[in-house]
Design goal:
heterodimer, A: alpha/beta, Pyruvate-ferredoxin Oxidoreductase, domain 3, Rossmann fold, B: alpha/beta, nine-stranded mixed beta sheet, 10 helices, binds thiamine diphosphate, binds iron/sulfur cluster, binds magnesium ion
Chain lengths: ~625, ~325
């Protein structure tokens, strides 16, 4: 979509009331960033701007800009907080490359974004210049130095008196600048002010005074922009009749859990998974569901397993450190064949790592984290919409195969906000397991079909079916047995289920040429960036196709055959890998991306990888560069 | 757990088909060592199940890992023999999902007071209607003779051959110290009449009934309770109209002390004083809020859940 950014025409604005007719830049997509000190509300501004844009019919993807600390010092480059909002004529699937327009509340938070190369060379930057007139000489010095540094790029910096103008309406401008900025943005992008007012009322529902004040600020920002700015951007909206919802990935998971008929979620707070429970804390009660905040992640897993064992499949949500704690219980769920859904919203690791930032580093831990052989199902939604539907699939598999299902989302999906087609939930998804009709005394609780490894669950409440499940090696009657035959048979039966499940899956679709130079394989939240990069690569004449996996365990069928049709296969992932030309790194000791390790062992194809661990969603431009190198030279990506 | 009539059907009607003979609650033959105190607890529990005529299909025994945690296998009810230290979270989940079930928890002293201590505190505070048995033999039995938190100071084990370094953790003061504790009792497996009455009182308490059962392990800690077993005058029995009935104990236990189980401060004082073994109900507060009540949610039908879901989607619709 490189071409997409090119203006499709400069047209004069209709009857402008401003000083002079502003230039209107009409583009197919545009990326805006709003950054402030933490606590100044740039995030709220970005969220409302994104929601209004979605409601007007634009494609939208928002990415949170999160400071490293909860209350970082003011006016510091790493302390910036805010939102990136990418809007387009059609669907937008990722946060894009660089911002085309930035609203910055001070030059320091702007420097933070500048240093991360988050801003396009030719970007327009609306910067509050109140700091240039500050009483404190040190602040004025920082301003000068900052502007000098920013001068290395051809940014067009437009001073905007956010603070001074907001002060006319509110005592504490720190609490008002964001809505003034929203008004400015609404003017620039021609956003419907009524919708913006509605959205403000929604954000501040229950607080009449706050709503009135924020609407006044919005209007003031809009009027100021009308009187002073000369640039407008038009990203034509394509209003559709199709019903859409706007959510982030964690809200989609929460709704998906309700759609899947799950009614108990046990969790312990951990970023970036917690917001699922914030959502459910409100919504679950109304649906007759129960959100249990346990004393730790181990207990959360135990409560979910206990509930699943006693009835309807329950779920637990966590992130990396919590996944580590749930390890032993996951093994127990495998061993007792208790259905369970575990959502891991991945963040940067290892250890406490990067709590608020994205990574895809838990794949192998999810698959192989348990001691002993512990086959289980691992799924990864690729979009916010899939975050909803994956929960339905996860419950169904967990129950039909009596197996824990791990759902790997990540911080990018968790905090990304996007409109997506409103789902039409099926009442059948609410099915009431388990079957509790009486069984003959002595019915085997693991009456494995020797070919399929599947067995009917005999849940407590079933007359006649009394037995004790155990994490110890056991026979079909759940009797503890340490003999060789019994143990080997149990392992075989639990593993067989995955092979059977794999046989029911449809082979993955390839996007792009059916054979060619390069096949890029991804999983999880990177789908949008990878496919956009491949589009651009093909526009450049490269022979690049992509394939995105949703099932990681078992792997989707037919991969070997697909891989053989391309000269090279490469995974793109947000996890660590050694670069082939790193010191001491050889073909043999090279530590590769996690999916590429899996694919190599499953297909015996020499699957290369290109990965980044910068705590950021992948930018399509970065992926494109990797594709070019790999498709053309075949050399070290 | 109030055992009035049929808990599964949620009505007060007696179900005549219910088993009422102890043998009908027997599962696999118990495999504990001869003389192990766990046998007596099993017998007492089977008697309780029979007398209360609990429906085996709606009774669940949850345990951890240890000699004591083999307990569920020896019963003809549902059982969940899970992870070392993690019986309470599993039981919490079972009870949240099926508040109508009778749920029992069996743990060892390592299970409850060491690896699972965090869950123990919080489960006490949740105060769900669970009957919780701590089989305290003051040792790690299954793993063969390692010091447990309740091992007496100076008692030699394989991990601390010079004797346990620390004064033992007191499960009674610990339990009584937790906010919202609602039932704390101590009994001993070698006093079957008292054991039975205590289990019965625990079962009938609506809330988290914590019973520490002093349990002999003739293999690893044969001496620990020797004096108390041989000389019943070294034991003091708590008596009160509100307490565990002790009339059956007859003259064998002449040392009695009147203790009102509604008096938390008196309970803590008695529990603190470990100069002698005391059997009885230390504390009971039937009015303590129960988590499954405060968190009780209407059981929605599928149609109702669908309506809520559509309303949710409306909230996010554009
Ligand atoms: C996570 C974990 N750590 C350690 C063990 C080993 N282990 C099994 S039982 C046990 C202690 C048992 O002692 P206790 O809980 O007092 O039960 P008892 O055997 O005395 O009845 C230990 C340490 C285990 N099974 N799991
Ligand atoms: S080792 Fe001790 S606690 Fe374990 S079964 Fe034998 S006697 Fe009982
Ligand atoms: Mg023990």
């Amino acid at each position: 979509m490189d071409t997409a950014k090119a203006p499709v025409g400069d047209v004069p604005a209709p009857a402008a009331t401003s000083r002079r007719a502003p230039r209107v830049l009409r583009v197919r997509e545009h990326t805006v960033e709003i950054v402030s000190d933490s606590g100044e509300g740039a995030q709220k501004c970005g969220q409302i701007f994104g929601a209004v844009s979605a409601k007007m019919g634009n494609g939208v993807w928002t990415v949170e800009i999160i400071p490293a600390e909860i209350q970082p010092p003011a006016r510091t480059p790493p302390g910036g907080s805010g939102n990136r909002v990418r809007i387009g004529v059609g669907p937008v699937t990722n946060g894009g490359d660089e911002a085309n327009l930035v609203v910055a509340f001070n030059e320091q938070v702007l420097l933070g974004r500048h240093r991360l190369h988050a801003i396009a060379d030719d970007a327009v930057i609306l910067l509050d210049d109140v700091w240039s007139r500050h009483d404190d000489a040190e602040v004025r010095r920082q301003w000068e130095a900052g502007l000098l540094e920013l001068g290395s790029k051809a940014y067009r910096i437009v001073p905007v008196p956010l603070e001074e103008e907001s002060q006319k309406l509110v005592e504490n401008p720190r609490k008002g600048k964001n809505m003034f900025a929203l008004g400015v943005l609404c003017w620039i992008y021609g956003r419907d002010l009524d919708r913006a007012r509605e959205q403000i009322a929604h954000q501040f529902r229950g607080k009449k005074d706050a709503t009135a004040q924020n609407v006044a600020l919005l209007d003031a920002g809009h009027a100021w922009a009308d009187a002073h700015l000369d640039l407008r951007v038009d990203v034509p909206a394509t209003p559709t009749d199709a019903a859409m919802v706007v959510t982030n990935g964690n809200e989609a998971i929460g709704m998906g859990a309700m759609a899947a008929g799950m009614s108990l979620c046990a969790m312990y707070p951990i970023t970036p998974a917690t917001s699922v429970s914030h959502y459910l804390g409100e919504a679950f009660d109304r649906a007759g569901g129960l959100l249990h905040q346990a004393e730790d992640e181990i207990a959360a897993a135990g409560v979910a397993i206990g509930a699943s064992y006693a009835g309807r499949t329950a779920f637990t949500i966590t992130s990396g450190p919590g996944l580590a704690l749930k390890t032993e219980f996951l093994g127990l769920a495998v061993m007792t064949e208790t259905p369970l859904v575990l959502v891991d919203v991945q963040r940067g690791g290892p250890s406490t790592g990067l709590p608020t930032k994205v990574e895809q580093s838990d794949l192998l831990a999810a698959m192989f984290g348990q001691p002993g052989d512990a086959p289980k199902v691992v799924l990864a939604p690729a979009t916010i919409e899939e975050c909803f539907h994956v929960m339905v699939t996860a419950r169904r598999i967990a129950e039909s195969f009596r197996v824990p299902v791990l759902v790997l989302s990540d911080a990018n999906l968790a905090t990304g906000v996007q409109p997506w087609p409103r789902p039409t939930p099926d009442a059948a998804w609410q099915a009431e397991p388990p079957e509790l009709t009486a069984v003959a005394e002595g019915t085997k609780p693991y009456d494995w079909d020797g070919r399929l490894g599947l067995s009917r669950r005999v849940a407590p409440g079933t007359p006649g079916g009394m037995h004790t499940v155990t994490g110890l090696s056991h026979d079909e009657r759940s009797k503890v047995a340490y003999d060789a035959e019994t143990h080997a048979r149990g392992c075989t039966m639990r593993s067989r289920k995955l092979a059977v499940l794999q046989q029911t899956l449809v082979p993955p679709t390839v996007v792009g040429p059916a054979s060619g130079d390069l096949l890029v394989v991804g999983w999880g939240s990177t789908k949008g960036a990878i496919e956009e990069a491949a589009d651009r690569a093909r526009a450049e004449g490269l022979s690049v196709a992509t394939l995105h996996l949703r099932f990681l365990s078992p792997l989707e069928p037919g991969l070997t055959e697909v891989f053989r049709r391309y000269r090279r296969v490469m995974t793109v992932e947000i996890n660590y890998s050694d670069a082939p030309d790193d010191p001491f790194v050889t073909e043999e000791n090279r530590r590769r991306g996690q999916l590429s390790m899996l694919l190599r062992s499953a297909t015996l194809v020499d699957v290369d990888c290109w990965t980044l661990v910068r705590g950021e969603p992948l930018r399509p431009g970065q992926v494109l560069a990797a594709m070019r190198r790999r498709a053309q030279t075949g050399g070290g990506a | 757990m109030s055992g009035d009539g049929c808990s599964l059907l949620g009505c007060g009607v007696e179900d005549e088909d219910r088993p009422h003979d102890m043998s009908e609650y027997a599962g696999a033959a118990a495999r504990w060592c001869p003389g192990c105190g766990d046998h007596a607890v099993l017998t007492s529990v089977q008697r309780l199940l029979a007398e209360e005529r609990l429906a085996p299909e709606s009774t669940v025994f949850v345990s951890g890992i240890g000699c004591s945690s083999r307990f569920p296998h020896y019963l003809r009810t549902y059982g969940f023999h899970g992870l070392h230290g993690r019986a309470l979270p599993v039981a919490t989940g079972v009870k949240l999902e099926r508040p109508d079930f009778d749920v029992f928890v069996v743990m060892g002293d390592g299970d409850c007071c060491s690896i699972g201590a965090g869950h123990w505190l919080h489960a006490t505070r949740y105060n769900m209607d669970l009957t919780v048995l701590l089989l305290d033999n003051a040792i790690y039995g299954l793993t063969k003779d390692q010091t447990s938190p309740t091992t007496p100071q100076g008692f030699a084990t394989k991990t601390q051959p010079k004797g346990s370094w620390l004064p033992p953790l007191n499960p009674l003061t610990t339990a009584l110290g937790v906010t919202n504790a609602s039932f704390v009792a101590q009994t001993a497996e070698w006093v079957p009449a008292h054991l039975y009455e205590t289990l019965k009182a625990a079962y009938h308490h609506d809330g988290f009934s914590f019973v520490r059962i002093l349990q002999r392990c003739p293999v690893w800690t044969p001496t620990i309770f020797q004096k108390a077993v041989k000389d019943s005058t070294s034991v003091e029995v708590l008596v009160h109209d509100e307490g565990v009935p002790a009339a059956d104990l007859g003259r064998a236990f002449p040392n009695r002390i009147v203790h009102d189980p509604r008096d938390l401060h008196a309970a803590r004082r008695l529990a603190e004083d470990t100069s002698r073994i005391r059997l009885g109900l230390l504390y009971r507060d039937p009015s303590a809020p129960r988590y499954e009540e405060t968190r009780a949610l209407p059981k929605h039908t599928a149609e109702e859940r669908m309506r809520v879901l559509e309303a949710e989607l409306d909230r996010y619709a554009v």
